[in-house]
Design goal:
Beta-Lactamase; 6 helices
Length: 129
């Protein structure tokens, strides 16, 4: 079973979940990310239909997107770290708690997240490939 096929079990999860692919410049700096998978709850959290996010760049979907997200996402992609943050998202106008994990970590945090983090509103779990 491929990685995106495994994601299909997340389709109906009541927490926002997406898989993003980082885009780096020639100097190795993260410059953007592309939504490769989004579950249905992403529409609720982001206020954008899944069809308008899939295979599109974050900064194409959210023209006013803050570049601060790239720092955490690049660290996850390059170093395999995990980030749990809560920060204001100007793209959607609210505080957004989220967990960013690498693809290799996805099986553990997905189950832990439901047990430990459901008290957070609009939790977004991002898996970075």
């Amino acid at each position: 079973m491929g990685f995106y096929e495994k994601c299909s079990i997340m389709d109906e999860m009541p927490l926002a979940y997406c898989v993003i692919e980082l885009v780096f410049d020639e100097d190795g700096h993260g410059v953007d990310f592309i939504f490769r998978y989004c579950n249905k709850e992403m529409t609720v959290v982001e206020g954008v239909p899944v069809e308008e996010m899939l295979n599109r760049s974050f900064y194409e979907v959210f023209r006013n997107g803050d570049r601060k997200w790239l720092v955490s996402y690049a660290d996850v992609a390059l170093n395999g770290t995990k980030h749990t943050l809560k920060d204001f998202s100007p793209e959607i106008g609210k505080n957004l708690p989220y967990i960013a994990i690498s693809q290799s970590q996805v099986s553990v945090p997905a189950s832990c997240c439901q047990n430990e983090c459901t008290h957070l509103n609009d939790l977004s779990l991002k898996c970075i490939v």
